Each structure stands twice: as C-alpha cells, then as structure tokens.
Amino acid sequence: MRAPRGLPLALADLDRTLVMGILNVTPDSFSDGGRWADAESAVERGRRLHADGADLVDVGGESTRPGAGRISIDDELGRVLAVVQGLVAAGVPVSIDTMRAQVADACVSAGAVLVNDVSGGRADPGMLPWLATCDVPYVAMHWRGPSDVMEDLATYDDVVAEVRAELAARIGALAEAGVDPERVILDPGLGFAKRSPHNWQLLRHLDALAELGRPLLVGASRKRFLGDLLADGTGEPRPFDGRDAAGDAVTALAAAAGVWGVRVHEVGASRDAVLVARAWREQP
Asked: Which residues are catalytic?
C-alpha cells in the first residue's frame, strides 16, 4: 500500500487505504450526470465530500459511461478548471480525471496533485511526453478503447492474466517515455471493457495485480456489475442509488487486500469501511 512518489506528505503518510471522492461535473455521467454541472454547486459538493472524509476529490469533466462520445478540449476545460481552482482555494486536495494532457496541465498548474487517466495515456499522444516533464502521481487505468466501443472489447481467455500483462505494458510505455515508474498508480478498470464476471475475477485476484509492484486504485462504486448482483426478481439491475452498500463492501474487501486507494461516490461509509479493514489487517 506504499504511496506513489510525488504525492503531498499529508496523503503519502496515510496508514490506511486512501478514499477518493468522485465529482463529475458533466451532464451525462452514468449515475450523477448533471447534479453538479455548474462551478458553484460542484465546489460545494467537493467541499462536502472532503468534509465527509474524502482524502482526494477527483474532478472529471468528460463522461466515460458506456457509449459516451468525446467532447472538445474547450468544453472539458470549461467544466473543470474553475472547479479545481475553487476547491484548491478551499484547501481541498484535488485530482483531475482526464485523458488529455492539455487539461491535465491546466489543472495541475491550478493546484491538482494527481492525474487520473482512464486511458492510461493511450487516448492522447501528448499525455506521456507531458507527464515526463512534471512530478505529479499518475493513475494509469486498464483501457482497451473508447467508451463508444469498449463493450465490444470485453473478450478474454484469462482476464486476470491479460489485464496484468496489459498494465505491465503501460508501465513499460510510461518508463520508455521518461515517466518515473514510482509515480505510477494502476487501476484495473472495473467496468471498462469488462463484463460482470471479469470484474469479480479481478477483485478476487487483486494480489496478482499487486505483484506488478505499483499501488492499486479500485473504482467499483455504483457500477453495472453491482447492479447485476443486486438485480430484482425480474433480472432488472438495481438502480444506481441502491448500490452504495454493495460498493462499501467492495471497499472493505479491497482495503483489506491492501489496495492504495478506492474511488467512490459517497465517501462516509467507505471511509468507515477502510477503517474496519485497517483494524482487520493490523491484527496478529
């Protein structure tokens, strides 16, 4: 669970799994699109997440829900930059959820302390060269393609072995571009080009991913595979707002497995789950 290089000391010195609160400033994110689409309400929401126990607030301006298309750089910057600035001014540690180097650069210049890239540097050829010029930690997620085609890419013979190999390849590509591997955090990309059984297999075998030697970030919150698990008698997935307790259970299990961080929509219960997991792990 060691922290990545470049993280502020207050976060690097945590003796437990870090809790990252999700702040989508988009009109179309899968569970909360449009709820905090203006800067004022988004900053207030980010402050509330921090007050509730989020160690980092992850600001994203482009939806990555299945089927989503890309937006322009100007639109993305227009959504996120003022929010990042407002949260930093309020003393809230911020990460920026983006696939674009230009957006990452503007937000890091505004005070963001981490870049969370769901494409692992594959969506923007400028991302890796930019990363080589700065010293912020970087989340490289397992990604096989854009949101509008990713469901067609969810084919695996051995999902754990293949995701591990593809993440190892990203570490290699980052190192070749001049990015210090000690700054890299890996995310298995639950729900991205994964069907429900794939997600559960990856969660069950987090130890195999941890063998890559990098901190792990797990983002299961409100995702479809939880809705499938909790489906009603007709087979209809449970709605988004009924999935948080199952997500908290995943948080506890992932934290007990030693992951560096969890990414969640509602942080209070997840923070409690992390503390339970720490107590569990500390016992002889």
From this structure: 223, 263
